[in-house]
Amino acid sequence: MKINLAHLREHSTSGGWINFAVFDAKSSSGDSGNATLLAQLTAKARVSGLKVDQSALAYSYNGQIRFYGTKTLVDYLARSGVPGWTHTIDV
């Protein structure tokens, strides 16, 4: 199965850079499943050569976009929205 992902690099609030990945995915077993899924997708992205400092899942729930992942990244995404997909990953 192919999963869309956005791999981006943005300035951090501390002055450096943050490389992050956002995956178009959601676990069917709730937050505990989301934690496992996010860890698996993040590891897969890193193995494929992407640098990932923070990561999150983005999915639709009751017609609204929800995010699950690193708190600072989730807060950023809640303000800025879902980024455009830049890659796909096979799982």
Can you walk me through this structure?
This protein has 91 residues and is an alpha+beta fold. It has helices spanning 30-47, 71-80, and strands at 2-11, 17-23, 54-61, 64-69, 87-90. A five-stranded mixed beta sheet has the order 4-3-2-1-5, sandwiched between helices. β1 and β2 form a beta hairpin. It is globular. The mean pLDDT is 93.
Keywords for this structure?
91 residues, alpha+beta, 2 helices, 38% strand
Short account of what is shown:
The chain has 2 helices and 5 strands, in the order ββαββαβ.
Q: Total number of β-strand segments?
A: 5
| Quaternary assembly | single chain
What strand line-up does the widest sheet have? 4-3-2-1-5
In which range does the helix fraction lie?
25-40%
β-strand amount: 35-45%
Order of helices and strands: EEHEEHE
Rough shape?
Answer: globular
**Biggest sheet layout:** 5 strands, mixed
Distance between the termini: 5 Å
Overall average pLDDT = 93
Pick out the low-confidence regions: none
Number of helical regions? 2
Estimated radius of gyration: 12 Å
Topology, element by element:
Layout: E1 2-11, E2 17-23, H1 30-47, E3 54-61, E4 64-69, H2 71-80, E5 87-90
